[in-house]
## 1
Amino acid sequence: MKRTLLPSVLGVLMLCPSLALAQAPSSKSAALATELVKLLDTMKLDSVAGSRGANNEFVAAMYFPGSQLVVVNARTTVPDRMKYLILQKSYKDLYVELNGAVDQASKTFISDLGANGLQFKREKNLPFDTVDVTGKTTAFDGDWRKAKLSEQEYTKIYVSNDEAYSQMLQALIDTLKKPS
């Protein structure tokens, strides 16, 4: 009986792939977060900010060594002020301004606990990452049912946010790599 049970279970899983555990997508932002953290540590900085294209969009991050990156991205109606703050390397000031008086409809806020890029789900006994886009928060704890999402919806939201976060991190890395 034991010999026929295993092939039967495998057969059911092959015919019904939704019963099998889904493969978590890999984090595109992980390598970039690691690179940014190394630059911040080397330069002895706890914040950084940068421009994101011609849409008056800016990104800023606060770094808490060994534990967290908090990143805000938004459009602003005062791009000259933001550019000035970047030139002055007043990254914390830009972070505060982006977090407050900005176009709230364009705002994204990421809490990267572990400062290791967005993770698809929580590792055992570790905190999880969150992303707030225009006021709607998604917790990447792996519990899509609690969030009233299907696994496919959760995965789609994760992949989209991980891609956007990767672009934000790259803009911040580019700021730090620019010659003074």
## 2
Amino acid sequence: MKAARIGILTVSDRASAGIYEDLSGKAIADTMGLYLSSPWEAFYRLVPDEPDQIRQALTDLTDVEGCDLVLTTGGTGPAPRDVTPEATEAVCQKMMPGFGEQMRAVSLKFVPTAILSRQTAGIRNRSLILNLPGKPKAIRECLDAVFAAVPYCLDLIGAARLETHPEHIRAFRPGT
């Protein structure tokens, strides 16, 4: 089985400036390691909250690196510099709003400010781009809520096949 290519994009002014360590990107990689039983490799990027740099990183991960799945973290709030959803929408051909709706619904069980989050998802060519929140705990809660649908979505768009460890997350594929 060919290894899936997974992009991890952290969007953070402070982490990209070296003010603090990027724990969110690490949380995504750790979660993928826990969830996935099929081979995969990570392609990591760290950029500031700049729309042009976010768009460039997304297109680099999808078009140049050939990532099947790109998971972003950060830049999904209401602050003026939070522009990850707009950058995602700008590079995608199709938006997948159900991912963001489900992540917000689950997050609201933990914090009332989840309603301020603007996570989204979209498809660029044969890549699924999924925006996650910026805090490691919230990343895991959101991935737990939506990841069961990710492998089938990748199947439908012609991306790499992902297999999961069912004791951690069970991929849902109709008819199986």
## 3
Amino acid sequence: MAIPLMKGGNISLTKTDPSLKNIIVGLGWDVRETDGGTFDLDASILMVQADGKVRSDRDFIYYHQKDSACGAVHHTGDNRTGAGDGDDESIHVFLDKVPVEIHKLIVCVSIYDADKNKQNFGQVLNAFIRLVNKESLQEVTRYDLSENASMHTAMIFGEIYRYDGEWKFRAVGQGFQGGLAELVRMHGIDA
């Protein structure tokens, strides 16, 4: 039985599922009816050090750079419509391959061409992030984003992080008006 989280909530992944080594980070959403324009939401992970910055651009994993240099993170590909049930995009994380200097994996979702298409997260429904044990396929935790983010074009859904020798997960739900460019710039990438 997965542990549901509210915004700001966190759990110890290590204590909740001691066998957890390989995670499927599943992300999903539905789009409100609009004037017919299509939405393309994109999931990504920033691998950051204790100072909140990436070591290099190689620590930004997304649909154009599907694998981290260390082999710890693999993006499975871009879903351009969000149609259907279940996960719309997923990213695999191999906890035992995450370099020791990486403190946190920030899971982000952004709307492609949001400004051009006049789109924002206020037009997105039923957004969620869930962590699944890749071996057992059991859902460990889930966070359903419920607040209205009508001004935001990029969001941090959650963070997988190290704390006192454990892996933990925090439900974040923080939006950004400057889109993905602003979000990655805050973490040390020139966009």
## 4
Amino acid sequence: MSTRVGIMDLREQLVSVTQGNVIVMGIGNPCRGDDAAGSRVARQICEGPGVHVIDAQDVPENYLCQVAHHRPDTVVLIDSVDLDSMPGSVALLDQDRTVGYWPSTHRVPMSLLVDYLERTTHARIFLIAIQPRQTGFLQPMSAEVSSSVEGIADLLNDVLGMRRVPAHAESSSPWKGKVPA
């Protein structure tokens, strides 16, 4: 799956792919304008039963053991990626297509991250890619990307909050027996 999508299309796709224990990992350098998009989305996602959120910033490799520890069924990565489209455009890429869209500013190539996650977790891996306008050092986030960040964060909170969680996720959840606020 490698389609540029609108927020409503993204909602439908995320409902179908976010199953079981889900890790959401935001990736991006907070000092480089639109490159901070994934990190900013992660900071707006609410954790709950079967959902763990990691703001990896520009060092996702530092969190791979933490991801594996949570035994995810689905891993959703979020990052700025040059999709050769309009700023703020969004694409949902599966693990087979993720590598082809990774002209990255990060130290470790996405192909290595995805390969490691596949081998250690056997999870389904997806990338929510956001087309940046500007990634210069100390530049502000563009209005287009900021709007996409807000939309994706709201969408993920909605989709992840309405899912049914498998029994093994509920038993290890800190929310067990509690109603989240």
